Amino acid sequence: IAASFSSERALVESGYSLVPRSFNTLAYRYLLVDSAQVLRSYGVSVTVTLVGTALGLFVMALLAYAISRRTFKLRRALAFYVFFTMLFSGGLVPSYILITQYLRLRDTLWVLFVPHLVIPGWVLILRTYFLDLPEELLEAARIDGCGEWRMFFQIVVPLSTPGLATIGLFAMLMFWNDWFTPLLYIEDQRFYPIQYLLYTIVNNMDFLDRLSQQAGIRVEPPRIPARMAMVVLAIGPILLAYPFVQRYFIQGIRVGSLKG
Fold first, then answer.
1. Which pairs from 196-204 meet CB under 8 Å and 24+ separation?
2. Residue (of 193, 194, 223) closest to 207 by Cα position
3. Is pLDDT above 50 for 259?
4. Which of 193, 178, 158, 152 has its CA nearest to residue 60?
5. Which of 99-108, 170-179, 199-208 has the lowest mean pLDDT?
6. pLDDT band for position 260 (50/70/90)?
7. CB-hemisphere CA count at 13 Å for 206?
């Protein structure tokens, strides 16, 4: 924060300090020159993060619950399929062709979260967490006439809050910090998330600096303060969300971690 409110020259000559040197707001004015686009990108990021986290957590929890049930005949085959995708993938080119040519998701909001709804490693963490639940409790619920859907929502989910909260935090961080997906699939500025917008601003700033040097024109964009201001702008919402899941975080990692 202090560096983002310092001047470029002060940071180069004197280094970093807890108190801003040569206080100015040039970095923020540079980043927020198109405030409407910044607000729109914030809206895209918030929407993608909330929808992607909720939907992804729901799908991964259902998948993890299915492969954790010992009465499910195909659980070993499905668990192997999930594990196999952790080791091997089709690669970037087949994924690009699938998303753009077959699913037609390019330049849509869907492409920012649909390809990331299922993360195999997180599914296995949830599966291990579900396996730690007392089998006797689930068996008693089944004897009382409880169906799988009711058992999942009324028994499994409430008992698995730490694990679900931990994976939810991971998903939030992934969706909020993702800039590579829009780099591949988004050209319409209406769908720029905040991370990708800041990425393009830094690239434009570096290009302007190189172009001015080649032309012999003295232009000094606030490169270091702008990068620090980017961190401040990008990390704010995550800092606000983290305290709500912090008390579940350590317990979820400890209990739901992969075993042997």
1. 196/41, 197/37, 197/38, 197/41, 198/31, 198/230, 198/233, 198/234, 201/30, 201/31, 201/226, 201/230, 202/226, 202/227, 202/230
2. 223
3. no
4. 152
5. 199-208
6. very low
7. 8
Residue with token string 């009324």: 154
d(CA 258, CA 86): 14
Q: How much is the CA Rg of the chain, to the nearest whole Å?
A: 23
For residue 100 the two structure tokens come to 């753009």
**Token pair of 49, please?**
């993060």
Question: Among residues 45, 77, 52, 82, which one has the least CA distance to residue 167?
Answer: 52
* Statement: residue 228 has pLDDT above 60: yes
Distance of CA 139 to the CA centre of its chain: 36
Which tens digits make up the pLDDT trace of 124-139?
A: 989 988 888 888 888 8
**How does pLDDT run across 175-203, given as a tens digit for each residue?**
998 999 999 999 998 999 988 988 888 88
The type of residue at 24 is N
pLDDT at 35 over 90: no
Amino acid at residue number 36: A
65: which residues sit within 8 A by CB, 6+ positions away?
Answer: 126, 127, 130, 152, 156
Task: Report how far residue 20's alpha carbon sits from residue 41's, in angstroms, rounded to the nearest whole number.
Answer: 28
